[in-house]
Amino acid sequence: MVSFDFQYKKGLEISSGYIIKGKNFRASIIKFPTMYTNPLPGTETVEVYHIEPKEKPVGSLILLHGLGTINIPFLLWMGIHIASAGVRTFLPILPGNLTRTANGSTSGREYFSTDVKKMVRFWEHAVIDVLSILELAKERNWWHENNCLVGYCLGGMISVILSALSRDFKKTITITSGGDIATLMWYSPTLAYFRRDVKKGFGKEDKMDEKNWFLQTFENDIKKLPSFRTIEEMLNSQVHPVLKIDPLAYARFVDSEKVVFIEALFDKALPLRTRKILWQALGRPRRYIIPSGHVTWLPFQYFLGSLVLREMNIKEFKRKVKLLEKPKIEEK
Q1: Most confident of 17-31, 219-233, 296-310
Q2: How many angstroms separate the Cα of 30 from the Cα of each of 48, 49, 136?
Q3: What is the pLDDT of residues 33-57, one digit of tens each?
Q4: What distance in Å separates the CA atoms of residue 59 and residue 306, rounded to the nearest whole number?
Q5: Burial state string for 207-244 with b = 16 or more CB within 10 A and e = fewer than 16
Q6: Domains, the chain, ranges and CATH?
Q7: What is the pTM for the complete model shown?
Q8: N- or C-end of the chain: fewer Cβ atoms within 10 A?
Q9: Which is more confidently placed, 150 or 206?
């Protein structure tokens, strides 16, 4: 039996230091012990890049990265430019990724695992860490009433869960994200490692067709989601534990008017079903389809940065010009 708990103890003791400075921004890294009660070794310390504009902030942004490490520098670049346009930006390193990889594991691997209990722990941990960063921002008066939550891939899936759990996000933008984790596990090319792990973990003595059973169970349980009146009721139900960390289970509790859904036309990492079903579950929010793949959207960073600013009603021309500037970085 897998238990779920998105509660955590409050009260943070942080350490912080500037790492780079530019003409229009300063970036520091903040660290503090995670508020999650059950972290795996190697994930115990929260790390978040805090990028603040030198002028008075006109908004706040939490930017969530995707699986692994390759996408993080690109999102950090985008965060720097958005901060240069006047928006205080937080980019957390989610547990299980980059410098927070669990001991003996690989960056991003545990979010889709044959070990259901471990998998659930990482999703719970990520949610708690971001909520604690939000609390820190509010305590330090860093959280602006004009704010936005932006997530790419895994970060987009987590952003849906966060938007259902918290009313502190004025706008949520998901970038190339999907729902229905069962379909992702069995049909996403990116998760081929999961299917290899299944073959290693289930021998000839196992008579159960794991793939068909998992997909059918998920399909049946997805149909039950509309009957749950609250998130607590869903979490206490008998639906599959993995569905309880799926954005599909939380989408109906998110205000569709506050969501922008960005989809990549040639996305091969996310099967079409997973993108469509999440968009529908979110109430068919405003959607942009960009002519790119799951990763090749990176050249569209200026478009995405401009979209974030526009959604936050930051429209001054001078701010858009700043978004194009190459940061003049000075070492501390």
Answers
A1: 219-233
A2: 5, 6, 11
A3: 999 999 999 999 999 999 999 999 9
A4: 14
A5: eeeeeeebbeebeebbeebeebeebeebbebebbbbbb
A6: 15-324 (3.40.50.1820)
A7: 0.91
A8: N
A9: 150
